[in-house]
Amino acid sequence: MSISISSAETFTQHQNGGQFDVPEIGGGVGFIDQQKEKTIGEKVYRQVQQQMPVLHDPWLEDQFMMVFSRILSQTQLGQPVGLVLIKDSQINAFAVPGGLFALNTGMVTASNNIDEVASVMGHEIAHVTQRHYSRSQEAFKGQGLLALAGIIVGAALASKADGDVGGAVMMGTQAALMDKQLSYSRNQEREADRIGMQFMYGAGYDPESMADFFEIMHRATSQLSFLPDFWLTHPLTTERMSEARLRANQFPKVTTRSSQQEFDIIKWYTLVVSGQANDRQLMAFARKNNFPGLLALSEFYLLQGDYDNAQAQLNLAKQINPDHTLVSLIQTNIYLGKNKIDDAYQSIISKQRITPENRALSYKLAEVYLRQNKPKDAEQLVNRFVSKNNKDIIGWQLLQQAANLDKQNPMRTVNVLRNRAEAQYWTGDEENAIKSLLHAKRLAKENNAMSARIDTRLKVMQDERKMKI
């Protein structure tokens, strides 16, 4: 999910000029080439979208993408496959060759600040920059990526069905991993800790937070009868914990800390949209006239369709900070829910014009345009983002709706099918995506240019569908 974003409420960034000696891992005999890694990353991206409860929320995606992009700027990685948020209270995160990163909402809600989230991202990014999974291919005799796919499927089973079944698959896969490369895995983890800490410090985040997060996790797991998924795939030893603290102490102090209130807004909003908070908790938090709590409670009522209560909480939040992006987004959604389309337009348009590069605001305005039956305006807005990121599922769904409303266009049905095919493809429904394109191809046979475009895309989809991990 590589997104171009901007926000008026960005975290304070502390740029450090220090250069670090991060080993560059290049190609070599037995290495998977980088193009194949990208293809693997995209394949797993589609599997994750299909099999796991992915959270699609443009505002939340953009908040984490800001952190992710800052850390990536410290690396030599090209365009990553994406960053995916998994709607799961389990503390977990993983990385896949080619630059696919996944973060559970439970990882966010277990953190105390954005620097702790950044430490997990830095660790996972380091796994990819050092090509740990690809380097494991020889040791695994080709089984490394199959094992990784097994971990993902195990997590999907755990979240969808009986937890014991998923746990059994997860434990079985992990046992195979540990059996084949226990010492190598420990070395990889320590290298990812060391390099990830350098990346996060270079991006302006406090390296102490990695050590803090390890200690939080260690305390949390000591009170549980089971290990979180993150522990199964990232074994934590007392040696790693003490090394992290010692290493963090060697960095110069980060004096400019990120905005705590901004993180609290993200954390409480995540609790609501991932279904991890109840109204009693939220009301207790909001009763203190707490801005993050008021926003979270407003969103909670909004998701229940209780627009009057949502508006009441939002009005209180507006008295504290009427200019926050989330205030505009929630207000627009309340008006859309009440079918007050003109009010919805007025609540979003000025904010979107100030920051046209903000994806969440642009997509909300596109939604309003669709309700106003202005498909061309919606299409123009969304195309700017989809052209930069062809895996943007929300973007393709909006474009499908826009194409459907464009009654005057002779290519209307073809365009609906093409956009639907992309939405289906990136949500993992490869078979139906191909069927949609084949149907579009039949309808467009008189239009040579359109037929050629469809043919090109169809061939890529068909080839990638055949690829087995």
Automatic annotation (TrEMBL):
The residues listed in the UniProt record as binding Zn(2+), with positions renumbered to this chain, are: H123, H127, E189
Q: What is its EC number?
A: 3.4.-.-
- Cofactor note, please? Binds 1 zinc ion per subunit.
**Cofactor(s) the protein needs:** Zn(2+)
The Polar residues compositionally biased stretches are 1-18
Subcellular location per the Swiss-Prot or TrEMBL entry: Periplasm
- The record's top EC class is hydrolase
The protein's name in its UniProt record: Putative beta-barrel assembly-enhancing protease
What species does this protein belong to? Acinetobacter nematophilus
